[in-house]
Design a protein that fits this description.
By secondary structure, this protein is α/β, with parallel strands linked by helices. The chain has one domain: Rossmann fold, CATH 3.40.50.150. The protein is 41% helix and 19% strand. The protein contains 13 helices and seven strands. It has a seven-stranded mixed β-sheet, sandwiched between helices. Helix 5 crosses helix 6. The longest helix is centred in the C-terminal third of the chain and has 13 residues. It is globular, with a radius of gyration of 18 Å. The structure holds S-adenosylmethionine. S-adenosylmethionine binds next to helix 2, strand 2 and helix 9.
Length: 253
């Protein structure tokens, strides 16, 4: 299949689409979470290493770790393993269909449904108790279909003092435009598409459902205004979409 068409197959997905894809036996583990195989195959260890390095609390023992939208690739399995080795508790929030692919053990608590509603009354008992929150490649769907600000605020309320949160793998349409207007972006596009045409890039137009610089920077401002340290950080260069995706780190002092 043409690579561009293959990528578009995974555009505009909703939480319900993901739960259906999780049940589809014809999809690989990468496709079930919305990625063409070539974007993720052989890359999961690099991705995991990149986010573990950004979240030093994951290397400590007895942490409460929450992953929102773990999906069902090897990434959450690596997190299960890390948490097990560190005697940390792991809370997982995603659709029942996604969570069914992940292991059960006494240190894992699964909440099926979308965050934050899936936590139900635990949303109160968990307040200020979570040492690490990971939402990797998730907030773009919340931005497009739900209330991003409520999502971010509810995460902040869960963070314990010293807690660390990664909103990772955020596709930023302005960053994408910067890249595809550059020489290396044009060259990369030609290689990827197999055609000699430059990528189509337009500025000054409305971009419904796309996260751009204004959204990324507003998350930083909002977290800082609410008493947290927050930064936009790059992904390791070797990650598949590091030229147009970035991460947000939010640490509670
Ligand atoms: C692109 S996949 C990423 C999966 C995994 N984090 C990874 O990078 O391989 C997005 C995942 O987020 C989940 N998701 C989307 N919105 C969510 C929400 N509000 N709460 C919990 N999970 C959500 C989807 O069901 C899906 O499993």
């Amino acid at each position: 299949m043409n690579k561009v068409l293959n990528t578009n197959r995974f555009a505009n997905l909703t939480f319900d689409d993901f739960s259906k894809m999780a049940k589809n036996k014809g999809l690989s583990r990468h496709e079930k979470v919305g990625f063409p195989n070539e974007y993720r195959e052989g890359k999961e260890k690099l991705i995991f290493k990149d986010f573990v390095n950004k979240l030093p609390n994951l290397k400590l023992r007895f942490q409460n770790v929450l992953e929102i939208g773990p999906g069902c690739s090897n990434l959450p399995l690596m997190l299960v393993d890390t948490c097990e080795k560190k005697d940390s508790n792991l809370l997982l929030v995603d659709s029942k269909e996604m969570l069914n692919h992940l292991p059960d053990n006494p240190r894992i608590t699964k909440y099926s449904g979308s965050f934050p509603n899936a936590l139900k009354k635990d949303v109160i008992t968990l307040r200020e108790t979570v040492n690490v929150i990971i939402a990797y490649s998730v907030i773009q769907y919340v931005f497009a279909n739900d209330n991003l600000w409520n999502f971010v605020d509810e995460c902040l309320l869960l963070l314990a003092p010293g807690g660390q949160m990664l909103l990772g793998d955020i596709p930023n349409v302005t960053m994408r435009k910067r890249f595809f207007s550059s020489e290396s972006g044009i060259r990369r596009h030609k290689e990827f598409s197999g055609q000699d045409k430059p990528p189509f890039v337009t500025f000054n137009k409305t971009e419904p459902q796309n996260i751009d610089d204004s959204v990324v920077l507003a998350i930083i401002s909002r977290a800082r205004a609410q008493g947290f340290d927050a930064w936009v950080v790059p992904q390791a260069k070797r990650l598949p979409m590091s030229n147009r995706r970035e991460d947000i780190l939010i640490f509670r002092p």
